[in-house]
Design a protein that fits this description.
Layout (H helix, E strand, L loop, with lengths): L3 E5 L4 E4 L4 E8 L7 E3 L4 E2 L8 E4 L9 E13 L2 E10 L7 H11 L6 E12 L6 H10 L9 E13 L6 H9 L5 H13 L15 H23 L4
Parallel strand pairs: 4-10, 5-10, 6-10
Antiparallel strand pairs: 1-9, 2-3, 3-8, 6-7, 7-8, 9-10
Helix pairs in contact: 3-5, 4-5
C-alpha cells in the first residue's frame, strides 16, 4: 500500500529541552494545497503504536533516518477545532545521531517547525465518486463548497509514521540560523548529504489524477525545498 504524506507548519512547543520533548499539531482539518481534507476523527493508530517512529522526510531505508519516537498521540481540540496532537522525543541522547541533534537544535531555536504525517488511507470520499451523497454530506459538515470544495476527504486513515521536514521553511530564517551559529559548516555538509539521499519516484501515468498523486508531489516538493535550503544557507556565508 502506498503511503500518503501530509505536511502542516505548526508552532512547535518544546516541552522539555533536556529530554528533547516537543509537542506538535500533526494534522487538522484544513483544506490543503492538494484540495484534500483529513478528518481528525478518522485517525487510527493500530500499526503506529507498535513503534511510533519519528523520521527524517519520510525516508524508510535505514535506521539512520530515525530522529526519535512519538511518545504520545491523541485526537484533541485546539481553539475549538479538532486536531491530531503528538509529542516527539528527539534522539538527542544518542551521541551518534548527529541529524537528530541538529534537528532538535533547529527546532528549539525556532527555525524548524514543519512536521508531516505518513498514513495509509482506509476510507475516503471524492468529488469524482459515482455516488456523491457521502461526499456532499462531508462538504456540509466541513462547511466547504464552491471554490473551497476538496477533491478528496479522508474519512479513516492508519498513521504509519511522523516526519520532520523542511517544506515551507523560510530561506531567510535558514540563513539567519547559519549566521546565528545554529548551523555550522559541518551541519551544512550533513544537510547536503541528506538532500542527496532523496530521489524522485518514477511517474505512473496509469494512476494520474488519483489521490496517490499527492504523495509524489510531496516528495518532489521536499527535494526542491532541501535543495533550496542548502543553496540559501551556503549563500549566506557571503552576507
Amino acid at each position: 500500500m502506498k503511503t500518503v504524506t501530509k505536511t502542516i507548519y505548526p508552532v512547535a512547543r518544546v516541552m522539555d529541552a533536556a529530554k528533547g520533548l516537543v509537542e506538535y499539531v500533526a494534522s487538522d482539518e484544513t483544506l490543503d494545497s492538494y484540495r484534500e481534507v483529513i478528518r481528525v476523527s478518522g485517525w487510527r493508530f493500530d500499526l503506529f503504536k507498535r513503534n511510533a517512529p519519528f523520521l527524517d522526510s519520510h525516508k524508510y531505508d535505514s535506521i539512520g533516518v530515525q530522529l526519535g519516537k512519538v511518545v504520545d498521540f491523541k485526537v484533541d481540540r485546539l481553539n475549538g477545532k479538532p486536531a491530531l496532537v503528538e509529542v516527539v522525543q528527539w534522539a538527542i541522547d544518542v551521541p551518534e545521531n548527529e541529524l537528530a541533534k541538529l534537528g532538535f537544535r533547529m527546532t528549539e531555536k525556532g527555525y524548524a517547525k514543519a512536521v508531516s504525517v505518513g498514513f495509509w488511507p482506509v476510507k475516503m470520499v471524492t468529488s469524482w465518486s459515482d455516488d456523491k451523497s457521502a461526499y456532499q454530506a462531508q462538504l456540509l459538515e466541513l462547511g466547504l463548497g464552491g471554490d473551497n470544495a476538496p477533491r478528496v476527504v479522508y474519512l479513516e486513515q492508519q498513521q504509519v509514521e511522523l516526519s520532520a521536514c523542511v517544506i515551507g521553511a523560510n530561506p531567510n530564517a535558514l540563513a539567519r540560523a547559519y549566521k546565528a551559529g545554529c548551523l555550522s559548516d559541518e551541519d551544512l555538509v550533513l544537510l547536503e548529504t541528506q538532500r542527496n539521499k532523496i530521489s524522485l519516484p518514477e511517474t505512473d501515468d496509469e494512476h494520474a489524477g488519483s489521490a496517490d498523486d499527492s504523495a509524489d508531489v510531496d516528495l518532489a516538493l521536499r527535494q526542491a525545498s532541501l535543495g533550496l535550503m542548502a543553496t540559501v544557507v551556503k549563500l549566506s556565508k557571503s552576507f
